[in-house]
Amino acid sequence: MTSDSPVDQQGDPADEATKAAALRSALEDYDLEPEDRALLDGAGERVGTGPVASAGTLAIVGRPNVGKSTLVNRILGRREAVVQDQPGVTRDRVSYPADWAGAQFTVVDTGGWEVDVSGLTARVAEQAELAIDLADAAVLVVDASVGVTDTDEALVRVLRRAGKPTVLAANKVDSARAEADATALWSLGLGEPYPVSALHGRGVGDLLDAAVAGLRSRGGSPGTLTDPPGVRRVALIGRPNVGKSSLLNKLVGTERAVVDAVAGTTRDPVDELIRLDGRDWRFVDTAGIRRRIARTQGADFYASLRTQAAIERSEVAVALIDSSQELAEQDVRILQLASDAGRALVIGLNKWDLMDPERRFYLERSVEQDLAPWSWAPRVNLSALTGRRVDRLVGALDLALAGWGRRISTGRLNSFLGQLVAARPHPLRSGKQPRILFATQASTRPPRFVIFASGFLEAPYRRFIERSLRESFDFTGTPIQISIRVREKRRR
Fold first, then answer.
1. In angstroms, rounded to a whole number, what is the distance separating the alpha carbons of residues 351 and 119?
2. Domain range spanning residue 318?
3. Domains held by the chain: number
4. Fewer C-beta neighbours within 10 Å, C or N terminus of the chain?
5. Is residue 223 one of the residues assigned to a domain?
6. Does 226 fall in a domain?
7. What confidence tens digit (pLDDT) does each residue in 107-158 have?
8. Percent of the chain beyond pLDDT 90?
9. Whether residue 291 sits in one domain with residue 429
């Protein structure tokens, strides 16, 4: 413990629970929002934000303004995707968990695909094509009231090259009389067109039956979580030529990934199920991120997006840094990308064997300074090429995952904060001092805390709370999210 965060040892759980109940009762004197009450009653708690088992990923694609987002909302059973009666509203790939007839899957809404476009429209089309590449099956949405267009035919060629099961949705068929319009879509060569009305829900059940059958025919893919329970998913991330593929090969024991001295050899995420210390781990080798994703082009653009998707599907990221070189801006950006995604983090200092003892001493001091914002992440000094200290990686992964999933009881949390504030209260601002009224841990994976306060808690004090939480409860290897909800006392 540091001298500025004195907290006593574990107290009596019954006494802590009693104090927490009293604080919770006193909170009723303040104006609370419905979401506050849901959180306090436990309905707002999340078990975790980590990946779950899925039957696969279903991409909804089509040209602009054919009703893709409306169909996504119909599949979800709620208005989640933004819908507006004009083309180009959806620009990014947006994923949502969905289920149908007992099958859980991920549905991906995409922007309108167009051929021979440039600028922002071209980026939207690239996102749609990437969604097709990463998906296990696709639904092509066509406006039956308009009929087949040149753009529809061009998109069909893209789908055929991808080789994914594709179901044809003839949208905007709002009546039995309009079903005749759907028959003209047989000319696309994708088989039977399913007449649907995404707006009114007509025919969507039959369409989903066919789509789920397409997902099941694929039997899962590297992009879906079909591993047995207990298999942890690890993303290997870092800038190009830092040794990610070499590390994967060393862990597997074979040349699983292509390794070359030319930076950027890896373009697509490479998955491999590896048994380490008697347990199975799913490792994903990703492409190196050169610069900001928005500034990349061509194959690098696709590779960067796939790397970002791999991080989001993982539970813990191993960020490799070339210890033989100075810490680069890309290294910092990649570390931030993993922590912003809420994933557990382990830092691997690779090529450690290339340095002499004096250089290692100065590197340790430099690392302490440069990686200060991620001082909570365990570090492993290793050599992916020779395998030196690679065996220490599992211990670091276990440590990070344990912190990622750690939960503090509400009683213990409020007792801890009470002692913390008593020892070091928030500074006065304009003659007022904000008080912490109540706190609860809203979720794990990553740990997220919600603090109810009578006034705004400034950033330095929030960092002090985060640092104290780490020191007292061992949140090693995980980002911590702290939300402050300022509530005023109800006027009588």
1. 40
2. 232-403
3. 3
4. C
5. no
6. no
7. 888 878 888 777 767 767 777 888 888 788 999 999 998 889 999 999 999 9
8. 38
9. no
Helices 459-473/410-423 angle, 10° precision = 120
CATH code for the domain of 253: 3.40.50.300
| Token pair recorded at residue 129 | 């094509």
Tens of pLDDT, residues 360-407 = 777 777 777 888 999 999 999 999 888 888 999 999 999 999 999 999
For the stretch 169-224, pLDDT in tens is: 999 998 877 888 788 899 999 999 999 999 888 999 999 999 998 888 875 443 44
Name the pairing type of β-strands 279-285 and 193-195: unpaired
SS (H, E, C) the chain: CCCCCCCCCCCCHHHHHHHHHHHHHHHHHECCCHHHHHHHCCCCCECCCCCCCCCCEEEEECCCCCCHHHHHHHHHCCCCCCCCCCCCCCCCCEEEEEEECCEEEEEEECCCCCCCCCHHHHHHHHHHHHHHHHCCEEEEEEECCCCCCHHHHHHHHHHHHHCCCEEEEEECCCCCCCHHHHHHHHHHCCCCEEECECCCCECHHHHHHHHHHHHHHHCCCCCCCCCCCCCEEEEEECCCCCCHHHHHHHHHCCCCCCCCCCCCCCCCCEEEEEEECCEEEEEEECCCCCCCHHHCCHHHHHHHHHHHHHHHHCCEEEEEEECCCCCCHHHHHHHHHHHHCCCEEEEEEECHHHCCHHHHHHHHHHHHHHCHHHCCCCEEECCCCCCCCHHHHHHHHHHHHHHHCCCCCHHHHHHHHHHHHHHCCCCCECCECCCEEEEEEEECCCCEEEEEECCCCCHHHHHHHHHHHHHHHCCCCCCCEEEEEECCECCC
Q: Is there a single domain that holds both residue 214 and residue 255?
A: no
Q: Do 174 and 269 sit in the same domain of this protein?
A: no
DSSP β-bridge partners for residue 348: 320, 380
In whole angstroms, what is the distance from residue 354 CA to residue 352 CA?
5
How many angstroms separate the Cα of 297 from the Cα of each of 7, 242, 292?
A: 51, 21, 11
Peptide bond into 446 cis (omega under 30): yes
Global pTM reads 0.63
